Amino acid sequence: MSSSPDDSFSSLPLPLLLLSEASTALATAFCVAPFVTVIDRAIIQNAAGTSHLWPAIKTGAREILLRPWNGMLRNPVFLLMWMVYGGTYVTANTIEVLSRRAKRDFVYPKFLGTSVTNIVLSTVKDRAYTRNFGKVAPKALPVYTYGLFWTRDMMTMAAAFTLPAPIAHHLHAHLDIPLTTAQTASQLILPCSIQLLSTPIHLAALDMYNRPDATLRQRAVQIRREYAKSVLARMGRILPALGIGGVLNGWLRERARAGAMSGWQEWGRGRRWVGAAGVRVIAKAEL
């Protein structure tokens, strides 16, 4: 008798289940990190005035495509991005697994866990990126810049990990949209849509770092000038990172759990066969 992937949450040994979830999370992050790295670096270079947005994107993409070893595994910029999304997806998957095992709701724990993880790791990443690609000499990030970065990240985590599931079920229940379609659409659209609100916060944080003495009016002009192309770039960044990445993570998790469940059942049958054979051998020896 076969089991569904959902049965694996309670049937598989916890260490095997956690290993499966962590592996799929890291694989997902590795797949999306190159795209996000190129766009994120270009946004910061553009905001700092060290390069225009699209030329910076082309340069970064060319580096990864033509020299993938140097552009990825030997590139601390890529490794930082892989760290951020690997840690975020590992946290999300782990919290969901532990909550399901305990038969508890995981929506809010997942939001809090992913927010804290993403904020801490993104702070490390943003600090390195801003210092490396800013136009001013490296200096300490002001507390209010951290605060804006944290606000930006919490908005994105809510849109990526908290809102898609309830909205998908609402669409399924009230508009008769197939659940799988609603889940995919919610996961792709919501993280991108929140960038309309979070991009001004992101640009303000960067401008406060690069131009600490600018007036409020000057900041508003800067944000208005950079908003359209930055929001498109951030949507292009978030779509692979948490939109497509979220769909890919879910797909990989289901298949990894199904594979682990099948392997665990085969191993169990093998153990029972060996045990039964051993009993027969002992019985014959006693005769």
Automatic annotation (TrEMBL):
The keyword Acyltransferase does not apply. InterPro entries: C365.16-ike (IPR038781). It comes from the Eukaryota. The chain crosses the membrane at residues 77-95. GO terms for cellular component: mitochondrion. Keywords: Membrane, Signal, Transmembrane, Transmembrane helix. Residues 1-27 form the signal peptide. This is Mitochondrial carrier. It comes from Gonapodya prolifera (strain JEL478) (Monoblepharis prolifera).
